[in-house]
Amino acid sequence: MTTVPASSVPLSRLLLATAACVADVARGQSLSERLPQVEAALRPGTQALTFYVMRHWGMARALERLLVPKAPAPPVRALLHTTLALLQAPAGAAPPYPVHTLVSQAVEAAKASKPTRFAAGLVNACLRRYVQHSAALQAQALQDDEARWNHPGWWIRRLQADHPQRWERLLEGANLAAPMVLRVNRRRTDVPTYLALLADAGLGAQPWGRDGVLLDKPARVDDLPRFADGWCSVQDGSAQLAADILLHGRTDGSERRLLDACAAPGGKTAHLLERCDADLLALDVDARRAERIAQNLQRLGLSARVSVADAADTARWWDGRPFDAILLDAPCSASGIVRRHPDVRWLRRESDLEQLASTQARLLDALWPLLAPGGVLVYATCSVFVCEGEAAVQAFLRRHSNAQRGVAPGVILPGEGPLSGEFNDNPRSGYDGFFYARLEKSHA
Ligand SMILES: C[S@@+](CC[C@H](N)C(=O)[O-])C[C@H]1O[C@@H](n2cnc3c(N)ncnc32)[C@H](O)[C@@H]1O
Fold it and tell me: How many other CB atoms are found less than 10 A from the CB of residue 386?
């Protein structure tokens, strides 16, 4: 459930800052890019409110259409959406603020900003009308699937087709806050020692998988013991499975030639290096993101060769020596990590999936010849859409007769964990939505 942190900043200021972010998401900007631009004192509160709005935006938009006959100017619309979303509550919970406080602060916010001042009367009238008739307006809005599930219609239909037994739980789960999982750097410490340090710091946690701990509640990284010294990293439970799957059946600590083809910001690169003494090449096409690989490795006391390159353009970066193992954590829709990035559903277009599928196939086909006979390529996406997981792998297997499937979880649904098999022994709530396939190259 989303909790909104107490803040000393007046609510009207937070509402304006949130509405500005909401307006930019409506224009196509991601919150990962937008939130760092928010004034530092306002940032934590704005993030919490903006996340809340994203999780109720379908309903807020439907209500706005019912309340305002003609779409208002974008800044006014964003403030209305923000306030209407904050007036909603998940089942069994109360909205984050008392209704009358929120409405009067929204009107204050409208008056305090030039682009919305002219419409303060409209904001006041709409919100008061909503408060008076909320039950009837909500019932009317709920006839719209986007309002009912707070996801775009195409996304709902795709989940219905891809997960006919689970789509409702997936949509509901996408509006819950994600748990915080840490990965303990086994080169610096071990899970029992780190759990004791967390307990000393007043942070409850339980072991998670091989190297992880699941915190009872999210914490700031600055409050994590010895974070700056590289004793742990924040990494979701599903993401931590990449190293398990790639190194499965191999002796830990052996010198190996590894490629992490889409590596930034380096979470999985670091985990692999914490696990084995590999000669690892980490590639990413995005120079700015690639800088973060080196920064993360430095904090953790690890090293790899880091290069900025299009992994599929092998002629430009490959030295001709085969890799023993390749991790392809491919660019994808991020439909599995909507709990952590609640704006993603509103930013994606259905047409993006075709483009992403072609990039995923291009990367798979380009990297496969670089793998030594007997080697392993792990294909991963943080998506729950079949076209980016199972369908992509089935098509790949049809194109490459020297590839076989090895042990891997396949699709992992957020909050549920792998549906079957060997990787299914961990607490469920620590998992984001993911897809993993292990592709083994025959010796012949
Ligand atoms: C899912 S993220 C990788 C996350 C990373 N593996 C981790 O665990 O921290 C996908 C990455 O692929 C990169 N990327 C996209 N297309 C690429 C390409 N053609 N070649 C190399 N990297 C690419 C993106 O810049 C992005 O950093």
Answer: 16
